[in-house]
Amino acid sequence: MWFFVIQILALIAAAVRGWKFWPFLIWGCLLVFGAVMGAGGLSTGEAQILQFFDIVATGVFLLMAIVGRKSESQSSTEAIATTSSDTRPRVPCPHCAELIVSGAMVCRFCGKSVNERSSIDTVQQQSSPDGFR
């Protein structure tokens, strides 16, 4: 009984630590495997095989819970932080709203010109009632 409790706690801890549904999938496969093997009555050898897989699965759950897994938002934030050592001020592009260097002539995301004249044209187009000049 205690082994089952440890297994369930490790399964939940692994899921919480970032492994999402994988521990539950492994546990579900283990339950199906046990049900299939136990359908006709277990011999001593079959019971030992099932117990071995149960112990291995619990070890995997414990390892997943201890190691954890980085979430996608953490890894992308760390990637941006480590690759961008540029500290120049940034402004949003008037066309696509991505952050670009304030003195840029062309947006590196949308490829459009971002000089002052194009910004003024964009504002005039947005303010005209029919969208045309």
Summary keywords:
mainly alpha, 5 helices, 133 residues, 2 domains, rod-shaped, 62% helix
Briefly characterize the structure:
By secondary structure, this protein is mostly helical. The chain is about 60% helix and about 5% strand.
Verbal overview:
The protein has five helices and two strands; from the N terminus they run H-H-H-H-E-E-H. With 133 residues, it is mainly alpha-helical. The protein has a two-stranded antiparallel ribbon. The protein starts with a helix and ends in a 6-residue tail after the last helix.
Order of H and E elements: HHHHEEH
Spans of at least 5 consecutive residues with low confidence = none
- Arithmetic mean of pLDDT: 77
Distance between the termini: 78 Å
**Backbone shape:** rod-shaped
Report the β-strand fraction as a percent range. under 5%
Q: What profile does the largest beta sheet have?
A: 2 strands, antiparallel
**How many extended strands?**
2
Helix content: 55-70%
Given the helix and strand composition, which structural class is it?
mainly alpha
Count of DSSP helices? 5
Q: Identify the strand order in the major beta sheet.
A: 1-2
Count of the domains: 2
Radius of gyration: 29 Å
Please write out the topology.
Layout: H1 2-19, H2 22-38, H3 44-67, H4 72-83, E1 90-92, E2 99-101, H5 116-127
Antiparallel strand pairs: 1-2
